[in-house]
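Just wondering, does anyone understand these tokens?
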Amino acid sequence: MSDFIKEMRRFVGHRPLLQAGASVLLEDERGRLLLQRRADCHLWGYHGGAVELDEVVEEAAKRELFEETGLRAESLELFGVFSGPEMHFVYPNGDEVSNIDHVYRCTAWTGTPRPQPGEVEELRFFAWDELPPDEELASMNIPALRAWAAQKQAERQDGVSE
């Protein structure tokens, strides 16, 4: 948690905060998506977190990816911006956020995946049609994951790639 968020929490307690997020959908050479099992709620999700004060969103996405997986994004492509009621999330400690998540797609990266101790329990690649069921996913990640899976399915049907 950033120092800014910690400071805000001292004022507002667990009440909802509007939070700008930066996230990464990282694909391997086979088009599979790397997901992490979060240590806080034991649910699967993609890599990301809050944008720090004055931080460039794309740089925040790269930073979060590296912190959580040990991987370095060589390039990012904006996949979408996700907001609305489905992006509201309550952390296990009771903190609430309404996320505006800037989600990037990454297919060019370096490094060997390694979970960040204390934050990430496990890292695993999933094909678009083998994603965990919704009840095993962090709820605020579901909209982008559905959009990603739909895009991959359309590419497969069009014969573009898998």
